[in-house]
Write a structure and sequence with these properties.
It comes from Galbula dea. The protein is built from 22 helices and 26 strands. The protein is of the alpha/beta class. It folds into 3 domains: 247 residues, Acetylglutamate kinase-like (Carbamate kinase, 3-Layer(aba) Sandwich), CATH 3.40.1160.10; 194 residues, Aldehyde Dehydrogenase, Chain A, domain 1 (3-Layer(aba) Sandwich), CATH 3.40.605.10; 154 residues, Aldehyde Dehydrogenase, Chain A, domain 2, CATH 3.40.309.
Length: 758
């Protein structure tokens, strides 16, 4: 037995084998039995007189949802003192007003003062009301709740402990939610405490330890401790350098400085940490989180159980490598060092990486073979994704060529002056290019993406976090090792980080203090999920690649089948592959139309008929379910239009602003199409597959953006840069330029320095 604050903690609970807590957040979804501890700051209102009813209702809703999923939920709650204080204060004020009205007249009512209320009396007055409130709320979800009041003495007596254990198990067996609280009406008098404005609050510290004791004794899988702070910080919350600790490990107490406790209660964060560590030692996982924040309190409990990164997770399993937060900080520092290198040094790193791709070809292909074999054995990847996962010698050679292009074109990318203005005499302003900061690139089944994106980040002086799919783990590991080997020649190895922790993509998208831009590379569903999950971080990319080819009435017979075959069949899984073929109505039942259909059949392309196309046919292919479909395979939709204007309108209505093509010999029609189609890439008599950073001469791309802000189309080095303003003066102040000042604005444009074109 060991004691904290004179409260006995029994190290091994009754009849319980030493359990194992969950090692990772992602395992919390398997928690069956859960204790939710509600601190006073969560349950009470801001004025500390009464309960926060809306917050409490939201918590009950979440607990009910989990209970109805088949989990066993228990609540350790505070709030009886605050609820009782509200009731007693009302009664005292009413009684005083009656007496003073009888004896002193109305004039003295305003001088009435509420005496200090004894906490045990408040608890006695509030317990029944608090429980009635819980019962009423749980009834809305067809769930029964039961109250259990305990004191410290109940844990000293072996028989009482057995009885308590048996009662709780029986309630859980009957699908009843136990509401547990310390019996504050009969506890010994507390030490004087002024935290609760006139009420000596007791038992909040007891409720932290009570929740831990019950969690361990009941063999609970998870203890959720809700407070009024986001979790555990390495220094007092609110201080300048305070950082939220994502995962806390036993033995980390030395790295934490505890501050003052919350506005109510006696426990404080230090008591919560002690209780959490004790519960963790007993086999119960623990999360401390904020239950008061209006933006998250409505789903904080369910988010924790789903394994999302909320609050501080206590774990006994310490990972071998750095956390993703530490990796973000390393990428930030490494990126700044990288940006400070000479352009020739950054280019040298990229040339070295290109050489390593060819020198280490056999090792790379061997790792890729492992990924392909594992994916095929598990059968979890569709054929298009398997094609994206596959690397070859020719692919690696093409990658190396692209990287050398990036190195050659990046000489003056960072720090390039794009505008110079003389504001006044001896006051010159420059606008120069600078890195965006830290990029997070998330990619699926595309190991070739890793060296491409790494080279672009190096060339633009950005720090980089890479999150690849599990299916490419072996390939990504070796490619990242080669990237870091290349970076090491100038001491900036940390600038490119590969996230290997079990971090969910949604959690990464919340790291707005570490990440400046997210670039997803993968399926449209992945991109949509990231765009939805990103909180305060811009996302560059496109959610769909619905590319059109319009065959005009003046199209060349020789060009049509070549361009369509290349656009659809060369790499159907690519985002720049043809998905919808628009045919001018006058071409139906012509030899050119027959040639198109025959070619698609030979290439085994499945055809879906658009509504208008189907109406012209007696026996048509299957009618398309949606004209806004990205097939990503040997399938496409054919639709009929009456004119180039209708083709443009169709593209605007059903396209994704990615890449659209016209095939025609009529220059006037072509120019109309080029000027009016509002997509990132618009081509005349060329395959959609040219929409690519390498083919554009950018060396490579981090992706294709359909955004209308910043970069659009294939994004190379230029799209990974922003600007800053440099003003060089000589004792200039704004007051000198006032109406009666001694200086005047010139605003003269100055010539730009000569660009390095070597």
């Amino acid at each position: 037995i060991r004691c904290w604050s004179n409260i006995p903690f029994i190290t091994m609970p009754l009849s319980r084998a030493h359990g194992k807590s969950f090692a990772h957040r992602t395992e919390l979804k398997h928690a069956k039995r859960i204790v939710v501890k509600l601190g006073s700051a969560v349950v009470t209102r801001g004025d500390e007189c009464g309960l926060a009813l809306g917050r409490l209702a939201s918590i009950v809703e979440q607990v009910s949802m989990l209970q109805n999923q088949g989990r066993e939920m228990m609540i350790v709650t505070s709030g009886a003192v605050a609820f009782g204080k509200q009731r007693l204060r009302h009664e005292i004020l009413l009684s005083q007003s009656v007496r003073q009205a009888l004896h002193s007249g109305q004039s003295q009512l305003k001088d009435m003062a509420v005496p200090v209320l004894e906490a045990r009396a408040c608890a006695a007055a509030g317990q029944s009301g608090l429980m009635a409130l819980y019962e009423a709320m749980f009834t809305q979800y067809s769930i029964c709740a039961a109250q259990i009041l305990v004191t410290n003495l109940d844990f000293h007596d072996e028989q009482k402990r057995r009885n308590l254990n048996g009662t709780l198990h029986e309630l859980l067996r009957m699908n009843i939610v136990p509401i547990i609280n310390t019996n504050d009406a009969v506890v010994p008098p507390p030490e004087p405490n002024s935290d609760l404005q006139g009420v000596n609050v007791i038992s909040v510290k007891d409720n932290d330890s009570l929740a831990a004791r019950l969690a361990v004794e009941m063999k609970t899988d998870l203890l959720i401790v809700l407070s009024d702070v986001e979790g555990l910080f390495d220094s007092p919350p609110g201080s300048d350098d305070a950082k939220l600790i994502d995962i806390f490990y036993p033995g980390d107490q030395q790295s934490v400085t505890f501050g003052t406790k919350s506005r109510v209660g006696m426990g404080g964060m230090e008591a919560k940490v002690k209780a959490a560590l004790w519960a963790l030692q007993g086999g119960t996982s623990v999360v401390i989180a904020n239950g008061t924040h209006p933006k998250i309190s409505g789903h904080v409990i369910t988010d924790i159980v789903e394994g999302k990164k909320v609050g501080t997770f206590f774990s006994e399993v310490k990972p071998a490598g750095p956390t993703v937060e530490q990796q973000g900080e390393m990428a930030r520092a490494g990126g700044r060092t990288l940006a400070a290198l000479q352009p020739e040094q950054r280019a040298e790193i990229i040339y070295r990486l290109a050489d390593l791709l060819t020198d280490q070809r056999e090792e790379i292909l061997l790792a890729n073979k492992k990924d392909l074999e594992e994916a095929e054995n598990k059968g979890r990847l569709a054929l298009p994704l398997l094609k994206r996962l596959s690397l070859s010698a020719s692919k690696l050679n093409s990658l190396a060529i692209g990287l050398r292009q990036i190195a050659a074109s990046s000489q003056d990318s960072v720090g390039r002056v794009i505008r110079r203005t003389r504001i006044a005499k001896d006051l010159d302003l420059e606008q120069v290019t600078v890195p965006i900061g830290v990029l997070l690139v998330i990619f699926e089944s595309r190991p070739d993406c890793l060296p491409q994106v790494s080279a672009l980040a190096i060339a633009s002086g950005n720090g980089l976090l890479l999150k690849g799919g599990k299916e490419a783990a072996h390939s990504n590991q070796i490619l990242h090792r080669l990237a870091q080997e290349a970076l090491s020649i100038h001491g900036v190895k940390d600038a490119v980080q590969l996230v290997n922790t079990r971090e969910e993509v949604e959690d990464l998208c919340r790291l707005d203090k570490l990440i400046d831009l997210i670039i997803p590379r993968g399926s449209s569903q992945l991109v949509r999920n990231i765009q939805k999950a990103a909180k305060g971080i811009p996302v560059m990319g496109h959610s769909e690649g619905i590319c059109h080819v319009y065959v005009d009435m003046d199209a060349s017979v020789e060009k049509v089948t070549r361009i369509i075959r290349d656009s659809k069949c060369e790499y159907p899984a690519a985002c720049n592959a043809l998905e919808t073929l628009l045919i001018h109505r006058d071409l139906l039942r012509t030899p050119l139309f027959d040639q198109i259909i025959d070619m698609l059949r030979v290439e085994q392309v499945k055809i879906h008929a658009g509504p208008k196309f189907a109406s012209y046919l007696t026996f048509s292919p299957s009618e398309v379910k949606s004209l806004r479909t990205e097939y990503g395979d040997l399938e496409c939709c054919i639709e009929v239009v009456d004119s180039v204007q209708e083709a443009v309108e169709h593209i605007h209505k059903y396209g994704s602003s990615h890449t659209d093509v016209i095939i025609t010999e009529n220059e006037k029609t072509a120019e109309f199409f080029l000027q009016h189609v509002d997509s990132a890439c618009v081509f005349w008599n060329a395959s959609t597959r040219f929409s690519d950073g390498y083919r554009f001469g950018l060396g490579a791309e981090v992706g294709i953006s359909t955004s209308r802000i910043h970069a659009r189309g294939p994004v190379g080095i230029e799209g990974l840069l922003t600007t800053k303003w440099l003003l060089r003066g000589n004792n200039h102040v704004v007051s000198d330029f006032s109406e009666h000042g001694s200086m005047k604005y010139l605003h003269e444009s100055l010539p730009l320095p000569q660009r390095n074109t070597n």
